[in-house]
Amino acid sequence: MQLLLPQMVIGFAFPFVAVPIMDMSVGFLSPKDLPAGTGQLNFVRTLSAAIGTAVSVAIWIDAISGAKATLAGELHNPDQAIALLQSGGFSDDQATHLLDLAVQGQSVMLGTNHTFLFIGLTLLVAAAVVWLAPKPPRHSAGTRKRVAMH
Q1: Is the dihedral of CA 107, 8, 55, 120 positive or negative?
Q2: Can you give the C-alpha Rg of the chain in angstroms?
Q3: 137 and 27 in contact (C-beta within 8 Å)?
Q4: Mean residue pLDDT across the chain
Protein backbone atom coordinates (compact mmCIF):
# COMPACT_ATOMS: atom_id res chain seq x y z
CA MET A 1 0.00 0.00 0.00
CA GLN A 2 2.98 2.33 0.52
CA LEU A 3 3.69 2.17 -3.19
CA LEU A 4 0.11 2.77 -4.30
CA LEU A 5 -0.10 6.52 -3.68
CA PRO A 6 3.13 7.42 -5.53
CA GLN A 7 2.09 5.23 -8.46
CA MET A 8 -1.32 6.92 -8.57
CA VAL A 9 0.24 10.39 -8.52
CA ILE A 10 2.67 9.44 -11.30
CA GLY A 11 -0.16 7.88 -13.32
CA PHE A 12 -2.30 11.00 -12.93
CA ALA A 13 0.52 13.43 -13.76
CA PHE A 14 2.03 11.52 -16.68
CA PRO A 15 -0.40 12.81 -19.36
CA PHE A 16 0.33 16.39 -18.28
CA VAL A 17 3.94 15.80 -19.35
CA ALA A 18 3.53 13.30 -22.20
CA VAL A 19 0.91 15.17 -24.24
CA PRO A 20 2.82 18.48 -24.36
CA ILE A 21 6.02 16.62 -25.25
CA MET A 22 4.21 14.91 -28.14
CA ASP A 23 2.79 18.26 -29.25
CA MET A 24 6.19 19.94 -29.04
CA SER A 25 7.85 17.08 -30.91
CA VAL A 26 5.56 17.01 -33.94
CA GLY A 27 4.25 20.59 -33.87
CA PHE A 28 6.88 21.87 -36.28
CA LEU A 29 6.45 19.12 -38.88
CA SER A 30 4.80 19.79 -42.21
CA PRO A 31 1.68 17.75 -43.03
CA LYS A 32 3.59 15.44 -45.40
CA ASP A 33 6.24 14.67 -42.75
CA LEU A 34 3.79 14.13 -39.90
CA PRO A 35 3.27 10.34 -40.30
CA ALA A 36 7.02 9.61 -40.48
CA GLY A 37 7.77 12.00 -37.63
CA THR A 38 5.11 10.44 -35.44
CA GLY A 39 6.50 6.97 -36.14
CA GLN A 40 10.02 8.08 -35.25
CA LEU A 41 8.75 9.77 -32.09
CA ASN A 42 7.00 6.55 -31.01
CA PHE A 43 10.20 4.57 -31.63
CA VAL A 44 12.30 7.02 -29.62
CA ARG A 45 9.70 7.09 -26.84
CA THR A 46 9.66 3.28 -26.60
CA LEU A 47 13.46 3.09 -26.66
CA SER A 48 13.68 5.82 -24.02
CA ALA A 49 11.21 3.98 -21.80
CA ALA A 50 13.34 0.82 -22.02
CA ILE A 51 16.52 2.75 -21.19
CA GLY A 52 14.75 4.60 -18.38
CA THR A 53 13.55 1.32 -16.92
CA ALA A 54 17.07 -0.14 -17.01
CA VAL A 55 18.51 2.98 -15.36
CA SER A 56 15.77 3.01 -12.70
CA VAL A 57 16.37 -0.65 -11.83
CA ALA A 58 20.13 -0.05 -11.64
CA ILE A 59 19.57 2.93 -9.33
CA TRP A 60 17.14 0.88 -7.23
CA ILE A 61 19.55 -2.05 -6.85
CA ASP A 62 22.38 0.33 -5.95
CA ALA A 63 20.16 2.09 -3.40
CA ILE A 64 19.24 -1.27 -1.82
CA SER A 65 22.91 -2.28 -1.57
CA GLY A 66 23.85 1.05 -0.03
CA ALA A 67 20.97 0.92 2.45
CA LYS A 68 21.86 -2.65 3.46
CA ALA A 69 25.50 -1.70 4.07
CA THR A 70 24.39 1.29 6.17
CA LEU A 71 21.83 -0.70 8.16
CA ALA A 72 24.24 -3.58 8.79
CA GLY A 73 26.76 -1.09 10.16
CA GLU A 74 24.14 0.55 12.37
CA LEU A 75 22.80 -2.63 14.00
CA HIS A 76 22.82 -2.30 17.77
CA ASN A 77 24.03 -5.49 19.40
CA PRO A 78 23.29 -8.02 16.64
CA ASP A 79 24.80 -10.77 18.80
CA GLN A 80 22.00 -10.27 21.31
CA ALA A 81 19.39 -10.52 18.52
CA ILE A 82 20.98 -13.75 17.30
CA ALA A 83 21.12 -15.11 20.86
CA LEU A 84 17.45 -14.25 21.34
CA LEU A 85 16.56 -16.12 18.15
CA GLN A 86 18.69 -19.09 19.23
CA SER A 87 16.90 -19.17 22.59
CA GLY A 88 13.69 -19.50 20.55
CA GLY A 89 14.98 -22.72 19.01
CA PHE A 90 16.77 -21.51 15.89
CA SER A 91 20.26 -22.71 15.01
CA ASP A 92 23.12 -20.23 14.63
CA ASP A 93 22.79 -20.29 10.82
CA GLN A 94 19.01 -19.88 10.96
CA ALA A 95 19.24 -16.98 13.42
CA THR A 96 21.88 -15.24 11.31
CA HIS A 97 19.77 -15.77 8.19
CA LEU A 98 16.65 -14.35 9.88
CA LEU A 99 18.54 -11.26 10.99
CA ASP A 100 19.90 -10.86 7.45
CA LEU A 101 16.36 -11.17 6.04
CA ALA A 102 15.12 -8.45 8.39
CA VAL A 103 17.95 -6.13 7.32
CA GLN A 104 17.35 -7.00 3.65
CA GLY A 105 13.62 -6.24 3.92
CA GLN A 106 14.26 -2.82 5.42
CA SER A 107 16.99 -2.17 2.84
CA VAL A 108 14.56 -2.85 0.00
CA MET A 109 12.05 -0.40 1.45
CA LEU A 110 14.69 2.31 1.98
CA GLY A 111 16.07 1.71 -1.52
CA THR A 112 12.57 1.93 -2.96
CA ASN A 113 11.92 5.18 -1.12
CA HIS A 114 15.17 6.70 -2.37
CA THR A 115 14.48 5.55 -5.93
CA PHE A 116 10.96 6.99 -5.90
CA LEU A 117 12.33 10.27 -4.56
CA PHE A 118 14.88 10.41 -7.39
CA ILE A 119 12.26 9.55 -10.03
CA GLY A 120 9.82 12.07 -8.57
CA LEU A 121 12.38 14.86 -8.66
CA THR A 122 13.36 13.90 -12.21
CA LEU A 123 9.70 14.01 -13.31
CA LEU A 124 9.24 17.35 -11.56
CA VAL A 125 12.17 18.83 -13.50
CA ALA A 126 10.90 17.29 -16.75
CA ALA A 127 7.43 18.72 -16.16
CA ALA A 128 8.89 22.16 -15.47
CA VAL A 129 10.93 22.01 -18.68
CA VAL A 130 7.88 20.96 -20.70
CA TRP A 131 5.55 23.57 -19.25
CA LEU A 132 8.12 26.38 -19.40
CA ALA A 133 9.36 25.60 -22.92
CA PRO A 134 8.21 27.97 -25.66
CA LYS A 135 5.33 26.80 -27.78
CA PRO A 136 6.49 25.35 -31.11
CA PRO A 137 5.38 27.08 -34.30
CA ARG A 138 2.44 25.53 -36.08
CA HIS A 139 2.16 24.81 -39.77
CA SER A 140 -1.09 24.49 -41.63
CA ALA A 141 -1.62 20.95 -40.30
CA GLY A 142 -1.69 22.15 -36.71
CA THR A 143 -4.07 25.07 -37.05
CA ARG A 144 -7.65 25.28 -38.08
CA LYS A 145 -8.67 27.77 -40.69
CA ARG A 146 -11.25 30.17 -39.50
CA VAL A 147 -14.22 30.63 -41.69
CA ALA A 148 -15.46 34.17 -41.83
CA MET A 149 -19.15 34.55 -41.13
CA HIS A 150 -20.93 36.86 -43.61
Answers
A1: negative
A2: 25
A3: yes
A4: 84
Burial of 63 (0-12, 13-18, 19+ CB in 10 A): buried
Q: Is the pTM of this model over 0.70?
A: no
Once rounded to an integer, what is the mean pLDDT over residues 96-123? 92
Query: What whole-number distance in Å separates Cα of residue 28 and Cα of residue 144?
Result: 15
CB 113 within 8 A of CB 4: no
Residue 85's identity, in one-letter code, is L
pLDDT in tens, 12-35: 988 887 787 787 788 778 888 888
**Contact between 110 and 63 (Cβ < 8 Å):** yes
Q: What is the DSSP letter of 76?
A: S
Q: Which residues contact 27 (CB under 8 A, 6 or more apart)?
A: 135, 136, 137, 138, 142
Greatest alpha-carbon span in the chain:
95
